Task: structure prediction
Amino acid sequence: MDEWRRWATPKERLRWVQALVTEKPRHPFTFLWRHLSWAGVATRRKLLGLKLKRDEPLRFRLIKGIVGEQYPRGGFRSSLGWTGLRLLQLAELDAPPDHPAIVKALQWLKGRQDPEGCFLELPSVPTSYPAVWGEEVRFSPIAIGVTAFALCGLLRWERESYWVQRAVQWVARQVLQRREICCLPCAVHALHALAISRLDSATVQAAMERLVSWLSDHQSEQGEWFANPEASYAVLFALGVCPSPAARSQISKALPMLAGLQFLDGGWGRSYRAEKTWVVTSALLFHELLETFVALTDRCPWLGRPIEWLEQMPPSLDESPTAP
Ligand SMILES: [Zn+2]
Result:
């Protein structure tokens, strides 16, 4: 078990983190500890379990900013994907479930469900969305990914509802019935949604297994997926919520590669750094691999990127291939 979880009270946990951020400049928590994004707030509140007074004005401002973008009917940009993303961020910011904007967004999504259980964008709405880690992902209008993407946010609020579970079952059936898994964005959003649905139906379990083993088929001996270290954020978004030993062992194998990809300030990526760092850190915590990772970077400090690199790198390095 990771060390910080053993601390019983928030006060002791706070002291532990405060010592950590002074002693370990490269720890992912050091990077996220003062970050003013939703991912920073989510790290402090949800990963560290610290409801800090200093975060409250920021948290309300971030929630207000998101809610201010909502269209009168309840969607965001009239898009299923954008609405799903905003619901995910509002959940990670711990917005209250009875917030009128959330109630309205959920109603809007419910009204957009197809009789089959899936969600289809209107023909006039583009099916390309910003992923949680910043990269733009594009789906074909009938892709599994459109429904799965919306579910990643929706499930954080409505996991128990029958209509949401129908959408989950639709995704699981599609994963099993299609001859091939079409692309990385569909796979990772489907796996994230299926995992957080916690439905233990045989279909959902089998679909998750197929997706995990598909990702494993695309992992090299060095630990990277799809021959591209930058694909890690997408893959970890999925494996990082997936409670299977097969998911954990892929992440274990990737630790040296992840260390080589991390900047010496504790963060990952050039743009959307807090979001990427949140994805990686959440995955490591979920699988209780954070301590192992930090021990590795202590032992092998040469694995890691000097922070000056950030200025030299083209932003395109943040983009992983849309299709393998
Ligand atoms: Zn696809």
